Amino acid sequence: MRKVGVVGAGMTLFRRRLQETPKELCYEAAKMALDQAGLTLADVDMVVSGSAPDAFEGIHMKGEYFLDGCGGYRKPYTRVFTGGGTGVFSTIAGWWHVASGLADVVLVVNEEKMSSCQPHPQSVFAHIWDPILDRPLQPNLVWIFAMEMNRYMTVYGIRKEDIARVAVKNKRNAVGHPCAQLPDPHITIEDVLNSEVMAWPVQRLDISPPSDGAAAVVIASEDAIRKRKIRDRAWISGVGWSIDSTMWTDRDLVFPEYVARAAKMAYKVAKISDPRREIDFAEPYDPFDYKELHHLEGLLLADKGQAPVLTREGVTERDGDLPVCPSGGLMGVGNPIAATLGIKVGELFWQLTGQAGERQIPHDVRTGVAQAWGDLMQYGCVVVMRA
Amino acid sequence: MTFLDRTTDARRFRHWEGHMEADYIYTSGLAGERFFVALRDEGRLLAARCASCDLAYLPPRLFCERCFAELTEYVPVPPTGKVAAATVAHVDRAGRPLAAPEVWAFVTFPGIHGGLVHRLLVDPGRARPGTPVRPRVRPRAARTGTIADLEGFEPVA
Amino acid sequence: MTERVERWPGVELSASDLVEGKVTSTRFRPNAKYAWSAGEAMSRFLAELQEGRLVARTCDGCERILFPPRMFCELCFRPTDAWTYVRDTGTIETFSISYLDKDARRIAEPILVGVVSLDGASPRMGLMHYFGGMTKDEIRIGMRVKAVWRPPEERRGSVLDISYFRPLREAER
Questions:
Q1: What are the mean pLDDT values of chain A's consecutive 10-residue runs (387 residues total)?
Q2: Among B15, B22, B23, whose Cβ lies nearest the Cβ of C37?
């Protein structure tokens, strides 16, 4: 298979509410990614976009709607969707286009505008539930996270303090991110533990915010990189993805089996046999603080029930042995669903090419893993990148 | 292979009713804001020009879809356009008969790329392509910065 | 990244910017209504609920008893084989104490909700439902519970034909 690399990345600010239309958000991120790569739209062979439900923007078939902002005008264009997994999955789809030999340069653009939905994006999340089994109970989406968090805490005897520690780490890390929505240099574990209980055990500061934003990456073949003498590039070494059924009540939520399957697939492609030793840093999906821990275990970077220990010992701090979410994650930078591409794959690119500025991990890193998660506790996808 | 159990009387199936409702507020965006503020405050139409491609987009947009340049030059749309296509609607969005037929048109302007869809202010029998038209703008007090600030297009006398 | 980018794009708006019309916008409310067919399995499931019973399907391939029932087994990818009933007692697999309603508005009295795995189904085959007859300090994972059914005349063929699951009493074990 051809060698494929990321050669540029871009993103907009992540905020609760942005004025730009979905098309304009796409354009801003896409243009930045191309500029950073030293490329123009004419260099792009194909375009992949990723975006979560149309119902957030309230524009049916939004992939077709905003394709011009993605640079997709009169090009082979595809929109992919895997719920919250879209943030990393669109990179995998972009990788297919180049690895197959069909394209040399692919622009991947992800966008989300959750602010259009009134009174709150929760109204849209209500429709993810099964209409017959779940909706009559009038569930709030936070319930399902609360149930997963409770199971995880109870089975392993994890204290809330160790989960809150992740929120603190990520919101502090986000201080170094120019696009961050909720950076907080002073936040403490007490702040998190004293925040309003939403659905126990979930409290307000355990949750990432809904956001508007867009992000983009440029993916290119080794040939194209060499021909154009592109200096800043990071190789995509492994890809993996897996999904479980929507019958989430049939599963023990204590361990995200589907993330582990995706990780094993990606590690096999990347020829990684000892993830904890061979991976230098990670950007797992953290829509809630406990999810970072849950996903570290799913990524086989921590033994079951042991991710909180790593956090407590400082291993996952930016200057630790295994920095996790050096970007500040969804908890600190924001959660415009698919546009989290910028703080997952985008962050791997910026770290591996030494361009992460204030957030740059202070020691040498050569292998990173990004992961996203989606739907009704069912989907996982993983990308491994190397310098 | 089909299911071993099959209901052959469809009336025995239950169905579950629900809805997918949410309210939406769509911002006009950066380019749209220029367009709708000009329409609301000055009663005029603007296009955005790409100098490299020599195209003036209506409605105006932030970027050129062809060369990806950011568009910062706004130009006025000429006062008279032409009906490119027209149709007469007899039912509403829900398929119910309209009290009176509605005439709709896609209107283009010389030197402008694209156009606008809006009401054509003529009797249904007189809706035809090629008719020169101009925008009829609502009174200032009735204008709020949306496409409804235009009442429609009327034939040039 | 940070050195080469002069301006990070994005024009932030506040809620009042929109509501007070400081920027132009358009409003719309779609009119989307649905009648979802319950299909083969769910139609029977709902009909049985109305009768005060919980029905499941068996899969001879993996020998599981699938609840809620489904017409194909997602593991074996073959049609399921037979109907069978499960008990209305079970175990709390996980739960939450919610102070939020479905529109994310705050409620004073919390809702106890979670997943109950039913006796007679394969392990971990669960149903999301309310818990009652217990306080938020009493609820715990592993608690044995039993369904509290609505009176027959109030049942409609819905998961709400069960009001909630309450703790199993000593005499019922």
A1: 95 98 98 97 98 92 96 97 96 98 98 92 86 93 96 97 98 97 97 97 97 98 97 97 93 95 98 98 98 98 98 97 98 97 98 96 97 93 98
A2: B15
Range of the domain at C168: 39-172
Which among C23, C26, C31 is the nearest to B33, CB-wise? C23
Whether C16 is covered by a domain: the verdict is: no
Q: In sequence order, what are the residues at sequence separation of 6 or more whose Cβ sits closer than 8 angstroms to the Cβ of residue C19? A: none
Query: With contact defined as beta carbons under 8 Å apart, do A256 and A373 qualify?
Result: yes
Q: d(Cα A323, Cα A308) in Å, to the nearest integer?
A: 14
| B1 found inside a domain | no
Looking at the complex, does the CB of residue A281 fall below 8 Å from at least one CB of chain B? no
Rounded to two decimals, the pTM is 0.94
Using an 8 Å CB-CB cutoff, list chain A residues near C94.
147-148, 150-151, 154, 253
So what's the ipTM on this one? 0.92
Q: What is the CATH number of the domain that holds B45?
A: 2.40.50.140
Termini Cα distance of chain C: 64
Q: What angle do CA B13, B18, B20 make, to 5 degrees?
A: 140
Angle, helices A160-173/A141-156, rounded to nearest 10 degrees: 120
Is the predicted pLDDT of residue B85 greater than 80, yes or no?
yes
By Cβ distance, the residue of A12, A131, A198 closest to C100 is A198
**Residue that has been written with the tokens 């499931």 in this structure:** C45
Q: Which residues pair with B76 in a beta bridge?
A: B46
Helices (H), ranges, chain A: 22-37, 54-57, 62-65, 86-99, 122-125, 141-156, 160-173, 189-194, 222-227, 257-269, 275-278, 289-298, 307-312, 329-333, 345-352
Chain B: closest CA distance from residue C153 (Å):
18
By C-alpha distance, the chain B residue nearest C33 is B19
Does residue C133 carry a pLDDT above 70? yes
CB B35 within 8 A of CB B28: yes
Contact status, residue C60 vs residue B36, Cβ threshold 8 Å: no
Whether the per-residue pLDDT at B1 is higher than 70: the answer is no
Q: Answer whether residue B52 is part of any domain.
A: yes
What is the rounded CA–CA span in Å between residue A173 and residue A73?
37
pLDDT in tens, A122-172: 888 888 899 999 999 999 999 999 999 999 999 999 999 999 999 999 999
Q: How many whole angstroms separate alpha carbon C119 and alpha carbon C121?
A: 6
Nearest-CA distance from A131 to chain C in Å? 8
Which residues in chain B have Cβ-Cβ distances shorter than 8 Å to A30?
68
B17: in domain: no
Work out how many domains chain C is built from and give that number.
1
A38-44 long-range CB contacts below 8 Å, 24 or more apart? A38/A8, A38/A228, A38/A230, A39/A7, A39/A8, A39/A105, A39/A218, A39/A228, A40/B67, A40/B68, A41/A71, A41/A107, A41/B66, A41/B67, A41/B68, A42/B67, A43/A105, A43/A228, A44/A71, A44/A75, A44/A105, A44/A106, A44/A107, A44/A218
Question: Does the distance separating the beta carbons of C104 and A140 come in below 8 Å?
Answer: yes
Is A132 in contact with C101 (Cβ distance < 8 A)?
Answer: no
Residue C78 lies in a domain: yes
* CB atoms C33 and B17 under 8 Å: yes
- How many domains is chain B built from? 1
CB distance A27–B68 less than 8 Å? yes
Whether B20 maps to a domain, the answer reads no
Query: Between chains, do C8 and A13 touch, taking CB under 8 Å as contact?
Result: yes
Q: Which residues constitute the domain of residue B53?
A: 25-155
The answer to the question of residue C26 being in a domain is no
Fold assignment, A4-119+209-386: Peroxisomal Thiolase; Chain A, domain 1 (3.40.47)
